[in-house]
Amino acid sequence: MHILTPHNLAKTGIALLMAAILCLVGYIWLHAPDASLSPKPGRAAHLSIDDVEAFGDLITNADSYTSLYDQPLFATLRQLHDSYGAKFTLYTYDWLPRHGCGISEMPTKYKKEFREASDWLRIGFHWPEPAFNKDITVKEFKEAFDRVNRAITNFADSTMIASTLRIHYFFAPDSLLNTMQGVRSLLCADDSNRLSYNLTASEAMLIGNGRRILKNDISYRRTDLRIDDDYLILRDLKHHEAIDTLVVFAHEWKLLHNPETDSSRSAAGRFKIWTSECVNQALLNNTVKWLHKAGYDFSFLE
C-alpha cells in the first residue's frame, strides 16, 4: 500500500511531470517532419531487438490470441515492415521467466503467419535465460542453444533461424562459440572499450574503429547504434551516414514492458514506465523511417 504523505505527493508530482515531458518528446519525435535526405544506394541496415520474451506472451495467451499480430511486439514490427519494408531479427531465450515457460512450449498455431513473414523476420538465440551467468557450463549453453533452434523450426521454420547473432552481454569464449552451429556473424558491443566474445584487445579495437574481421569463419562487426532512450537518434543516424552497413538495435523491455512486473509500483511509477515505452516506440519508428528515406536496404547480414 502506498501512503500519501507530502513527500510521496511531491515524488508523484515529479514523476508525473517527467512522464508528461516524455510524452511530449515522444509526440514530437513521432510527428517530426522528414529530414532532408538524399538516398544513397548500396547501403544496408540490420535491425534487431534484444531480450525478446514476447514468445512467452504468445504461449500463455495462445487461447485468446487468434493471430500472431494480436501480440503487441509483433503487431508493431509488422506495421514497420508494411510501412517501410523493415526487416527484424529477434534475439530470445530458452527460458522466459516473465511468463514461467520455455520457448519449446511455443504452439504451432502461428506457424503459417511466421512462414509468411520469413522474408522480413529472423529469430536467434540470445542466452539460456535473462539472468547472465559467465560461469555457465558448455553443456548448459549448448543444450539451450539447440532447444531454441529446435523450437524455431517447430513453431516457425528452420529458414527463420538467424545466422547473425548478438549474444547476451557479448559473452562467448571459444568453448561456447564452438558449440554454435550455423552462426556466420557476431554483432559486437556498441561500446568500443568493451571486449566481445573471443576477440583480443587489438581485434576489438579494429571492430570499434569500424572494421569487420573474419575469425574462424565467423564475421565480426560492431553494433553501431542503440535506440533505447536516445532522444537524439536522428542526429546520431546522420553522423553515421558514411557507414555502408549500419547495425542498430533496441531492447524489448524498453519498448513493451510487462505490467505484471510492476504490480507493486505506484500509479505514477506505472505511468512513467508507460510513457517511456511510448517514447522508445516513437524512436524506433523514426529510426526505421529515417533509414527507409535515406535509401538503406534492410538486411539480415546473412
Describe this entry's structure for a reader.
It is a single chain. The chain is α/β, with parallel strands linked by helices and 302 residues long. The chain is 39% helix and 17% strand. The chain contains 10 helices and 12 strands. The strands form 3 sheets. Strands 1, 2, 5, 10, 11 and 12 form a 6-stranded parallel sheet that branches. A 4-stranded mixed sheet has the order 6-7-9-8. β3 and β4 form a beta hairpin. α1 (6-30) packs parallel to α10. The radius of gyration is 20 Å and the shape is globular. The termini are far apart. The model is unreliable at 1-7 (pLDDT under 50).
> Radius of gyration from the CA trace?
20 Å
Largest sheet: 6 strands, parallel
Task: Give the integer mean of the pLDDT values.
Answer: 89
Query: Poorly predicted ranges (pLDDT <50, ≥5 residues)?
Result: 1-7
Structural class, from helix and strand content?
alpha/beta
Give the helices and strands as they follow along the chain.
HEHHEEEHEHEHEHEEEHEHHE
Using DSSP, what is the number of strands? 12
Helical residue percent band: 25-40%
- SS field, number of helical segments: 10
Distance between the termini: 52 Å
Specify the overall morphology.
globular
Strand content: 15-25%
